[in-house]
Amino acid sequence: MNNTKITETGNSAQSVFLNISQVDMVFPTPTGGFTALKEVDLQIDKGEFISLIGHSGCGKSTVLNIVAGLYQATKGGILLNNKEVNEPGPERAVVFQNHSLLPWLTCYQNVELAVKQVFNKTMSKGEMKEWIEYNLKLVHMDHAMDKRPDEISGGMKQRIGIARALAMQPEVLLMDEPFGALDALTRAHMQDSLMEIQSELNNTVIMITHDVDEAVLLSDRIVMMTNGPEATIGEILDVKLARPRSRLSLAKDLEYNRLRSEVLTFLYEKQRKVENISSKAVKPPAVVKKRANETN
Amino acid sequence: MSSTTVKITSLTITEQAVNIVKNSLTKMTNALLLPVIGISIFIFLWSITAQSIHTSLGDFPGPNAVVKQFSSLYLEHKTERKKATEFYQRQEKRNAAKLAKNPDYDAKIRAYTGKETFLDQIVTSLITVTCGFVAAVIIAIPLGIWMGLNKRVNLAVNPIVQVFKPVSPLAWLPLVTMVVSAIYVSDDPMVSKSFLTSMLTVTLCSLWPMVINTSMGVSAINSDLINVSKVLRLGTLTHIKKIVLPASVPMIFTGMRLSFGVAWMVLIAAEMLAQNPGLGKFVWDEFQNGSSDSLARIMAAVVVIGFIGFLLDRAMLQIQRKVSWDKSSVNA
């Protein structure tokens, strides 16, 4: 039912900024090919914030890795500014789920490694230093520049990871569940920071998330994926909430709650994962019952 | 009322002091007293068993005899050094006298050719093991990195490593000896053949733990870090320098420590058979000598070998602590 819509946008693919075009992904397994993705097709404009949401194992990360160039699509491909993407590069910076900072370098040095690689020819040493410090300030981490990753908290590490990605001045920022490993309060704080940075830099972002609130709060469009195998884009939801957005005032907003329930409906009604999670399936061992009887 | 509170606080202060003293006492016991007790029991058992073992070279040496040999070995070293200086002084005197008679006289100083003392032999052993080990490091670490980065290389080389790893130095030695005497022919050799043979045997045996650990460390690098490198498009050399080496330093050092231990053990055997003037030769010569002191002198050498091996391991550990970013990987 979505096919008509996809082909419509597909026709104007010539002028889009980032074009994920009819991507199939087949992983080789001992028993034959496993089709993880089937005809994933998405066009993204410059400056757009896209969330990919779906149940775990539906191939969200695979999509991101293909855009990053870490995987090669079996069929179809990625066009960035009408140029095909087939290897990783700093113009498509990735923020990894578990920060993946180099543990033997300080925060400053971690960002420096990226800056040196990308701006080797275009920046002087002094300019690089300024640029690194600017990016660390952007994520409010300039106070911990000389600390090693194991000396700072998980949220701080993720900030440094974001600073490193931003410092590459990427055309597309790819984020793989950037706040998935953080506690709820830190996550909310990081989301606010990200919105603040986004309003300043207006990056093109693709973010994977499991969190419905996060998706609605941050995105311009929410791309909802069907369950794998042969996962594809199920529905696309436009989020037309005015920016800047505040989580407090949005909590009572009708449109916000409508969007939220639409995503929830998609995830838990249309694409419900059939898993046996009823408590009856797991019986407690006999000892527990016996003890319970004794206390009674 | 106020006096009671004062009493209470003073009491808690004394209690605290007692606790602190208690804690430091237990720490002292753990660090000092227990090892001392262990060593004392060992020495006691040693002296008792030693008395009841009779060999053709007299009783098995007890702790007393060994301590006596330590001092006599040191005395021998001192007298030998004295002889050497006297020898050089005599030469200088003679040369000066000849020069006074004939100004055109070409004065020569001949080297002292006395026998090496125990201390000289320790130094020789340390030099030999270091050279052998460094040669092994130069081969093993690049090879290990290559194997870790490239699965195909690993599959090709790994069987060879696995087969050669358990080979005893004594099996290599005759081969190394023959190869060295065939290839290393020179009128004015820089190092002696026995040194080269011992060194190469050490290299051959200490290579493998390092190769295995390095390749394992490199292949186990977190794939996220590899992806970071890919996204940044780091070149191969930068990739190795900035990501691979630092990431695998803990494993590389574990391999190096294992290898150094192996090297020191192999060295003694190699020196024995190659007749390199080190600790191994000392043990062998004393065994062949067969005097009533021989066993005590060998036992003294055993203690020294063990002690040096222990110190070398500690030294490697200190270097590892300094170099490694992952302090949790550095265990004693």
Write down how many β-strands of chain A occur, each being a DSSP E stretch of 2 or more residues.
Answer: 10
The arrangement of helices and strands of chain A along the chain is HEEEHEEEHHHEHEHEEHHH
Share of helical residues of chain B: over 70%
Helix content of chain A: 25-40%
Structural class of chain B: mainly alpha
Name of the level-1 CATH class of the largest domain in chain B: Mainly Alpha
Structure characterization notes:
The complex is a heterodimer of chains A (296) and B (332). With 296 residues, chain A is an alpha/beta fold. Chain A has one domain: 3-Layer(aba) Sandwich (Rossmann fold). Helices cover 39% and strands 22% of the residues of chain A. In chain A, the strands form 2 sheets. In chain A, strands 6-7-8-3-9-10 form a 6-stranded mixed β-sheet, with helices on both faces. Chain A has a 4-stranded antiparallel β-sheet with strand order 2-1-4-5, with helices on both faces. In chain A, α6 links the parallel β7 and β8. In chain A, α3 runs parallel beside α5. The N and C termini of chain A lie far apart (58 Å). By secondary structure, chain B is mainly α. Chain B folds into 3 domains: 50 residues; 41 residues; 212 residues, MetI-like (MetI-like fold, Orthogonal Bundle), CATH 1.10.3720. In chain B, 80% of the residues lie in helices and 1% in strands. Chain B is built from 10 helices and 2 strands. Chain B has a two-stranded antiparallel ribbon. In chain B, α3 runs antiparallel to α4, α3 packs across α9 and α4 crosses α6. The longest helix of chain B is centred in the first third of the chain and has 50 residues. Chain B is extended. Chain B starts with a helix and ends in a 9-residue tail after the last helix. The mean pLDDT of chain B is 88. At the A-B interface, β6 and α3 of A face α7 and α8 of B.
